[in-house]
Predict the structure.
Amino acid sequence: MVTCTIDGIEIDVPKGTLIIRAAEQAGIMIPRFCDHPLLKPVAACRQCLVDVASPFGPEGKLRPFPKPQPACAIEVTPGMVVGTQMTSAAAKEAQEQVAELVLINHPLDCPVCDKGGECPLQNQAMSTGRPVSRFVDKKNTFPKPLSLTPQILLDRERCVLCQRCTRFALQIPGDPFIALQMRGANQQIGTFDADVLGVAPVAGEAADESTGDVPAVCGEPFAGYFAGNIVQICPVGALTSAAYRFRARPFDLVSTASVAEHDANCSAIRIDYRRGVVLRRQAGDDPTLNQEWISDKDRFGFRWQTAPDRLDKPLVRRDGELVEVSWPVAIAAAAEILGQAKTTAVLPGGRLTLEDAYAYGVFARRVLGTDNVDFRARVSSAEEAQFLAHHVAGSGAGVSLEELIAAPSVVLAGFEPEEEGGILYLRLREAGTKVYALAPFASRGVQRLGGKLIRCLPGQEGQWLSELAALGKAGKPELAGSVIVVGERLASSPGAFSNALKAAAALDAKLVWMPRRAGERAALEAGLLPGLRLGGRAAQDGLPMGLDLAGSVAAAAAGEIDTILFGGLEVSDLPDPHLAREAFAKAKVVALGVRRGAVESFADVILPVAPPQEKAGTFINWEGRVRPFPQVLVSTAVSDAKVLARLAEALGKPQPIGSVAAVHQALAELKPGAERAPAPAVAPPPVRPTGAGEAILSTWRMQVDCAAGLDYEPYLAASAPAPLVRMSSELARELGVKDSDPVAVSTKRGQIVLPCKVEATAAANLIHLPAKSPGSWVLETLGVTSGAVVQLAALKEVGQ
Amino acid sequence: MTALMPLLTSRWGNPESWTLKAYEATGGYEALAAALKMEPAAIIDTVKDSGLRGRGGAGFPTGVKWSFLPPPDGGPRYLVVNADESEPGTCKDIPLMMADPHSLLEGVIITSFAIGCHHAFIYLRGEVVHVYRRLLNAVREAKQAGLLGNNIKGSGFDLEVTVHTGAGAYICGEETALLDSLEGRRGQPRLKPPFPAVAGLYARPTVVNNVESIASVPWIVKNGADWWKSIGTEKSTGVAIYSLSGHVERPGQYEAPLGITMRELLELAGGVRQGHQLKFWMPGGSSTPMFTPEQLDVPLDYDSVAAAGSMLGTRALQCFDETVCVVRAVSRWMDFYAHESCGKCTPCREGTFWLRSVLRRIEAGGGRPEDMQILQDIPKSIVGRAFCPLGDGAPSALTSSLKFFPEEYARHIELGACPFDHAASYLFEAVTL
């Protein structure tokens, strides 16, 4: 600890603390623009100038610095004496001088500025600025606004050039899509723009002879998945989002702390609404989880909850048509279907709160008397279910994010850190964790993490993990004590989960299961898998072992299951969407949902339920951390659990599942020490050979894609990177294609055509497609997933 | 009367002075041969002992700067020569590199040997293409002669020299902005610490020196520290190049012991333009406060000029006679600083912008009485607040002109126009279109 004195207050702070942070701890707010606690100091805005003196020489006589110093860039030293604007006339004068200069080129458009009312510049103009400006000359103006991305707009004349945005882009996600350009008063933030920079495109050798198109000389048009954070950290109104710009005044907004529903990190967010309408979401501050950053998906993806196809009244199918009915009629209709069912299956999906998941479990087992329950609305396997029951369910809070990023090394298997990791990617990058990616090629995310690629064809992860287990600590000392992260996606790779367990044991490594969806961990804890019960306990209620998702769909298609209780899931996410539609059309379906979505084509009764912002609940994130959130909006919509409670009542078997408290009581009453399921033991398959014109498919979801949760966000969708078919240079040569040439990937079921991108690190016979991006719905179109053999062909033009 | 003492400029008039042949014919690379036989530490001590102070403007002792390098750790260390001469009025490094590039190279090789550098860089202002060619040619000649490359003159010492051209930004004369630019980044000053001696180019220990400082090193090595100390004043040793420009009869570079006075230099240069009197002069470039004829007898060494209220700077002595409108001159300089402010920090970026706006308005006749207060106040908002010395130097001319010629500003405001006939100050025929 270092002892210093700020404005006469003696304070102890850890070594390395900046003056501005130490002052905050002493309760003194020094004005600032460029300073941000999560970014490296730059000392550019000069607003935080303070008077500093430190002991010098053997006698430790105080020696003042000859001029005021930036509090944001100087670490406190023992015995340092700091005078801020509170006690030092020199500091006050310096800050007032800088404030006057900051404001000369700033427009007086606060009344129409998004930031007006929550603006650090406005506040500091009040505290430190002059009552009347002395500047009478012409202010700098720029054409406005400049579109940095489809989502993010820049009004350059409002910018105070603090560089928070450019430093964020460079330091945090590593997406330097904006930079300072020009100089002096013409200095501005911009994207790569040949006109502004005066760069002539390089003609000649790189030009496409057929079209004459000249490729961009440099610069990546893609801004990244975290760019929205710059809008939030901008200390003035220079950066705005297209989705929120001009739509509200900050002082009309009501803010509620909540939890994001888009990925398994369950980041802290703040929901801002006005008169019952959510207008924006901001990053919350959770230093141990998302710090002050969130992904653009968590920030901008909220209009799905109030989408035009949002259900507000129950629907019942009469004479083939869905008609609106009252709740009692709908409950009665649903109860009749469920009551007459011979065999049922419950498919609740993976976006559940713990409370709703618990209700589905109780409803399935005690009311419907079936164990055909599976929360996994995605490619899944029996091996995975056994792995989850053995290793994850009921294990409580496991490896935390902080422990993960501090691990000596991290092995990522079946998990793409940026596309599937969200905020975890930022934390790994910030910590500089040593990352080994067991993946078919080094993705952009892995490269920016400085990760080491362990090249592995999809389907062969189990093989590699078993070899790793055989090598052990002695053979692989660099992985001893590491954390192995297994993505849910490994369900398509037989033997991967089984051997991950062995590898972790052999290496003294910790093993983390990484689902994509926010609700999967809670559903697992609630026992929504065949044979599993609350808190990871094995079934002891005498129900026969049920069918999993694939089994239930197949049984329904074969007519063996006649009724399905359907939660919030997308049919297009299921392993075989065609078979699933056939099955759901055949069976009677009672669906609980926020939106009409895909269920309206086959459901017999649709019961509307509340989206997260209209109910209270608890997510459990991948760490096993409990993430409760309050009800944000006043709403007549009710949770899945409440609907199920009413259904149970109507079926004559009332259950205590309708309230948050009831669930937590049931969890609290669980006794520890239940027996765990045995570990799965599946052998990895041999390598699949490919012939000419064939390749092994690799696929995963992109962070921003055609997810239902991102519907009605055109600006966000337009910010997503272009879907590409990635392939090895060997395959590209074989097909005679180069970057951006169209390539068709096909199976017996269908064909996907996308522009080509050669991946230098890809295995020779590898092809990669985004799993559910525009023009590339792999499960829907090809009917296969990672590890399958697909056919390739070069096309002359996209669309052929 | 102090006499001229051409050392660094001694070869400028020789035929084909820029060639290796001509350089060696006049004792070139003799200092290198001597230096390669010395212990590197002894060279540093010699330069330290000579009292050589940086010729780039700040006057920091060169040998002391070298000794700030941490002990060798096996990794690279760099010498970077700041040849980005762009201060208005300063014109010494460019003629030196143009006429005598080998004298710089010899200094580079000796300095690199002294500090343990195996790759030195010369960061040259990009506009001076001819100088660039001369430097490239000198490097090529030196390499062919075994004066660069591996095992220089059998000493076992290796050195590569890269000549790099900047893109024409005044800020890149600031050493850390220069390093960023040299690394291929946007040229803006870095936050210090770490200082370049600890983490400079590519985050390695780096010495950044001015051209004239480095070119002085061979003379010191060859003739010894005591000889160098015998020239100049006690605290400003040796010779230096004084660049006279403006309303003088014979503008040009005058090399003389430090401590020569402006009166003496003016005499050597034939005096002020015939028929006119000196009105004001800049001792060290446009970033230093101006002097008037009252300071003609101030010895032009680091400390005496500072004591008289200005800075020796780069010894760019710009002379202005009574035909010059001081408001107009200051306004042009402010144009320069507003244009060249890198934009990183608020005081320099906004302050120079504001001052430029006000000065232009006053010059055009739109001045208001309250502008006098703004002209007094805004420099105080820049100096000591800005990130780097560019901001500190930007309002020097303005502030000093307000001290010496306040009535001239007031006159502009009263008249609503400039009272001067600008054509009278031209050194060329006024062209009427």
Notes: Chain B has a mean pLDDT of 96. The first strand of chain B starts at residue 78 and ends at 83.
